[in-house]
Design brief:
- The protein is of the alpha/beta class.
- It folds into two domains: 71 residues, Rossmann fold, CATH 3.40.50; 77 residues.
- Helices cover 41% and strands 17% of the residues.
- Helix 6 links the parallel strand 6 and strand 7.
- The protein starts with a helix and ends with a helix.
């Protein structure tokens, strides 16, 4: 999504990892080996292909991003948890990325059951899992669960991904 907004729509885009998973740090390490970036820097952000990635998100990082520097701010909260719930509910676009794999399905179903009264306008997506499970969830929770198109490169936006983002955003 960040690369779609930055490259296809020419929007100044920030991506905040607000979940403690450390994925953006690992991505930066890979980029440093591939493109020669310095990862020894104590900086908590880096920019790649027009997107600024913030590795340690919190309310202070979000406030700094909201000062007018960016057109779009994407926040990866990870799992829904009480400490981020209020911030997530304040987001303009609420997108839930669920997993339909058997070993992760329980957490997704639990979220859907807990949030039954707040679903209006939320966008639900899933990248993996069975089509039967996807249809069953749509029927049970009366939501549209959109299948995320497979992309072989997280930093490139092909025509199929572009069309998908145009439809949902």
């Amino acid at each position: 999504m960040a690369n779609y907004l930055a490259s296809s729509l020419q929007r100044r885009t920030a991506f905040i990892e607000w979940n403690g998973h450390g994925s953006l740090g690992r991505i930066e390490e890979i980029l440093s080996r591939t493109y020669g970036r310095n990862v020894e820097s104590p900086d908590t952000r880096y920019t790649f292909f027009g997107v600024t990635y913030y590795k340690n998100g919190n309310s202070h990082v979000l406030a700094a991003c909201m000062d007018g520097t960016y057109d779009e701010i994407i926040i990866d909260f990870g799992e829904m948890r009480p400490s981020v719930r209020a911030e997530w509910l304040r987001c303009t676009v609420k997108m839930v990325a669920g997993s339909l794999n058997e070993w992760k399905l329980g957490a997704f179903l639990e979220l859907l059951a807990e949030e039954e009264n707040r679903r209006r306008g939320w966008i639900y997506t899933a990248a993996f899992g069975s089509e039967d499970t996807r249809r069953e969830i749509e029927k049970r929770f009366r939501i549209s669960l959109l299948r995320v198109p497979l992309s072989v490169d997280a930093f490139s936006v092909d025509r199929r991904a572009m069309e998908w983002f145009e439809r949902i955003l």
